[in-house]
């Protein structure tokens, strides 16, 4: 699996960035493609918990879930993002403290479904720009949440 790493330094502490990741209701604010949150398990972001979301734009909405595979507060959130019939992706969001704030790295690739059969360069062509925009949005939320 090609992981397609994308990173950005966010001018906020790991705790501030984690607060956004740990708020399941904020998921659609920073994840490109997630258009609406229908429900969030009370235990989010502990392993096994899920966000119930819709992906796409009306009238072409797919309803599915994203579940937590691993969670290390202020360090790592590994997700299994579903969007069937398109498939599933494994997504790691890593947080690393740096003098300027937090370096956030997203590693993602298709793990199940038809997308696995696309050549890696085609997958990368859609995953990398989307994750760059997701990190831009995450930075906006994390850097401005308390203002």
UniProtKB/TrEMBL annotation:
Superkingdom field: Bacteria
SUPFAM superfamilies referenced in this protein's UniProt entry, alphabetically: Bet v1-like (SSF55961)
CDD domains, sorted: SRPBCC
InterPro entries associated with the record: Polyketide_cyclase/dehydratase, START-like_dom_sf
Protein's UniProt name: Polyketide cyclase/dehydrase/lipid transport protein
Species whose genome carries this gene: Motilibacter rhizosphaerae
């Amino acid at each position: 699996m090609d992981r397609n790493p994308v990173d950005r330094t966010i001018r906020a502490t790991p705790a501030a960035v984690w607060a956004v990741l740990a708020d399941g209701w904020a998921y659609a604010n920073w994840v490109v493609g997630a258009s609406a949150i229908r429900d969030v398990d009370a235990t989010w972001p502990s392993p096994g918990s899920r966000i119930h979301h819709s992906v796409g734009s009306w009238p072409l909405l797919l309803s599915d879930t994203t579940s937590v595979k691993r969670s290390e507060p202020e360090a790592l959130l590994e997700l299994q993002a579903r969007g069937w019939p398109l498939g599933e992706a494994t997504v790691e969001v890593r947080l690393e403290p740096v003098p300027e704030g937090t370096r956030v790295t997203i590693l993602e690739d298709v793990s199940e479904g038809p997308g696995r059969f696309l050549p890696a360069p085609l997958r990368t062509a859609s995953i990398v720009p989307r994750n760059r925009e997701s990190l831009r949005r995450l930075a906006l939320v994390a850097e401005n949440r308390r203002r």
